[in-house]
């Protein structure tokens, strides 16, 4: 059973700004409960804010089984439980791809970043946190970035932007914040380099 996230739905009908609505509905940074569909600024279901399971349940979509090459109209249909790879991403597929990009950026950041690189990265992360298509995710991420201990300050002695190690640990902390919110286990940030730059000790990525 799927429901529409009520505050967004009501506020959208009223034409109230999306940001105001979301601040009320999402102030605590809670994970979006399963079975809840988030709306976008046009009052349409926000696909990139919703897991495919909930999306499929909401749209009652029947799609061709992923093994089949036949078009959906003729193939045996099955209730979709996972997203075919050539479809627009849901919140999970978008998240996985985005973390891959963000962690790879962090893992290839200079070991000691010059001031202009630091300023560039702060600008990138600020813009990223405003344009990430899952807007409920983005707003929580912005709030996390605004906490004094997480602020990106170019040129700051011992700051998060100083070099690859510190920036990687910051990114790892950002991801762990989302992991905690979603009830997932935290990643061991001591293994960040192995996961995102060198490959695991033992050589199975070589
Ligand atoms: C900025 C941002 C905010 C998000 N906010 C939300 C949200 O509010 N609600 C929501 O439902 N989804 C959110 N997502 C998506 C969510 O984080 C996951 O990407 C998605 O649920 C898929 O999870 P997953 O278990 O496949 O692995 P992911 O969490 O996508 O992780 C991919 C891989 O990264 C590695 N990894 C895991 N944790 C860390 C870490 N701390 N540091 C380094 N590497 C790590 C692991 O090897 C893992 O397999 C957000 C994504 C982003 C980029």
UniProtKB/TrEMBL annotation:
Domain ERV/ALR sulfhydryl oxidase: 87-196
Reaction equation(s) it catalyzes: 2 R'C(R)SH + O2 = R'C(R)S-S(R)CR' + H2O2
Entry GO terms, CC: mitochondrial intermembrane space
GO molecular function, one term: flavin adenine dinucleotide binding
Keywords of the record: Disulfide bond, FAD, Flavoprotein, Mitochondrion, Oxidoreductase
Sequence segments annotated as region (Disordered): 1-35, 62-90
Cofactor: FAD
EC number(s) reported in the record: 1.8.3.2
Disulfide bond among keywords: yes
Feature: compositional bias, Basic and acidic residues: 10-27
Subcellular location, record wording: Mitochondrion intermembrane space
Primary location: mitochondrion
Top EC class, one word: oxidoreductase
Protein name per Swiss-Prot or TrEMBL: Sulfhydryl oxidase
């Amino acid at each position: 059973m799927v429901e529409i996230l009520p505050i967004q739905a009501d506020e959208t009908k009223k034409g109230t700004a999306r940001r105001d609505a979301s601040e009320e509905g999402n102030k605590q940074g809670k994970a979006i409960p399963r079975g809840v569909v988030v709306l976008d600024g046009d009052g349409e279901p926000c696909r990139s804010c919703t897991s495919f399971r909930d999306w499929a349940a909401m749209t009652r979509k029947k799609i061709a089984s992923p093994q089949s090459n036949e078009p959906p109209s003729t193939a045996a249909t099955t209730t979709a439980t996972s997203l075919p790879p050539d479809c627009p991403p849901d919140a999970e597929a978008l998240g996985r791809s985005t973390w891959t990009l963000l962690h790879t950026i962090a893992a290839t950041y200079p070991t000691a970043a010059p001031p202009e690189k630091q300023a560039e990265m702060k600008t990138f992360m600020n813009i990223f946190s405003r344009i990430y298509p899952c807007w409920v995710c983005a707003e929580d991420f912005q709030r996390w970035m605004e906490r004094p201990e997480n602020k990106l300050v170019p040129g700051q002695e011992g700051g998060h932007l100083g070099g690859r190690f510190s920036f990687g640990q910051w990114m790892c902390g950002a991801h762990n914040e989302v992991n905690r919110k979603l009830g997932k286990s935290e990643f061991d940030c001591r293994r960040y380099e192995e996961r995102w730059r060198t490959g695991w000790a033992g050589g199975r990525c070589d």
